[in-house]
Amino acid sequence: MESGFGSDFGSDFGSGSGGAGKLDPGLIMEQVKVQIAVANAQELLQRMTDKCFRKCIGKPGGALDNSEQKCIAMCMDRYMDSWNTVSRAYNSRLQRERANM
Amino acid sequence: AAARCGAAREGRGAAVPVTPAVPVTPGGNGNGMDAPSAAGLGGADPQLQRFIEVETQKQRFQQLVHQMTELCWEKCMDKPGPKLDSRAETCFVNCVERFIDTSQFILNRLEQTQKSKSAFSESLSD
């Protein structure tokens, strides 16, 4: 799950402090980052499922047929492509806005 | 203007216009961060405060990307193909830009109507 996500989510499954049991702020921050990354992944999956169901499933049959499965697979990839495109475009716009301030 | 509108979280299906994470009206605050003060959240620890500010900002960005992807998918995607063709890609980029423009337009116009017509803001506060 990380390859498409890593830099775009800014998630960082980094080393962490490895301190056992102590209330170490570094450890807490790492854990929070992980939780945030998980939440983002869930959000992405939820929206992707919604969109791809709408695009690929017509009248629901007794099972997902081959064409539906192929469609879903392509849809997932295109959704990720779209997400990345939007993320880049938004980032560019933010940088442009900041440069103009 | 974002602060004046009391805009904070965007929610799906919310009736209130969505405010992007950054101050998109010209002359907004310089650091580009719209985060509420983290003083209450992080306690006295400045490292934790900074962390909360940064992560909050990142999350706002993520949320808006999720939202815009969803919206723009409806506008730009017909049938999912083997790759994202350049026309669709252009559409997504335009879509993001126009969404931000729309948001700025709404904020600016709201600000103007509040300035010129006090009756408007009175009816808002009802």
UniProtKB/TrEMBL annotation, chain A:
GO molecular function list: metal ion binding
UniProt subunit comment: Heterohexamer; composed of 3 copies of TIMM8 (TIMM8A or TIMM8B) and 3 copies of TIMM13, named soluble 70 kDa complex. Associates with the TIM22 complex, whose core is composed of TIMM22.
GO biological process, one term: protein transport
Function noted in UniProt: Mitochondrial intermembrane chaperone that participates in the import and insertion of some multi-pass transmembrane proteins into the mitochondrial inner membrane. Also required for the transfer of beta-barrel precursors from the TOM complex to the sorting and assembly machinery (SAM complex) of the outer membrane. Acts as a chaperone-like protein that protects the hydrophobic precursors from aggregation and guide them through the mitochondrial intermembrane space.
Cellular localisation: Mitochondrion inner membrane
Domain comment in the entry: The twin CX3C motif contains 4 conserved Cys residues that form 2 disulfide bonds in the mitochondrial intermembrane space.
Biological source species: Cepphus grylle (Black guillemot)
Pfam families: zf-Tim10_DDP (PF02953)
Domain Tim10-like stretches: 31-91
Family of the protein in this entry: Belongs to the small Tim family.
Membrane topology: Peripheral membrane protein
InterPro entries: Tim10-like, Tim10-like_dom_sf
Protein name per Swiss-Prot or TrEMBL: Mitochondrial import inner membrane translocase subunit
GO cellular component terms attached to this protein's record: mitochondrial inner membrane; mitochondrial intermembrane space chaperone complex
Signal peptide start and end residues: none
Keywords: Chaperone, Disulfide bond, Membrane, Metal-binding, Mitochondrion, Mitochondrion inner membrane, Protein transport, Translocation, Transport, Zinc
Main subcellular location: mitochondrion
Domain of life: Eukaryota
Gene: Timm13a
TrEMBL record, chain B:
GO BP term (any one): protein transport
Domain Tim10-like: 51-112
Signal peptide: none
One Gene Ontology term, aspect cellular component: mitochondrial inner membrane
Chief subcellular location: mitochondrion
Keyword Membrane: yes
Subcellular localization: Mitochondrion inner membrane
Function recorded in the entry: Mitochondrial intermembrane chaperone that participates in the import and insertion of some multi-pass transmembrane proteins into the mitochondrial inner membrane. Also required for the transfer of beta-barrel precursors from the TOM complex to the sorting and assembly machinery (SAM complex) of the outer membrane. Acts as a chaperone-like protein that protects the hydrophobic precursors from aggregation and guide them through the mitochondrial intermembrane space.
Family membership: Belongs to the small Tim family.
Domain-related comment: The twin CX3C motif contains 4 conserved Cys residues that form 2 disulfide bonds in the mitochondrial intermembrane space.
Name of this chain's protein: Mitochondrial import inner membrane translocase subunit
Protein source organism: Cepphus grylle (Black guillemot)
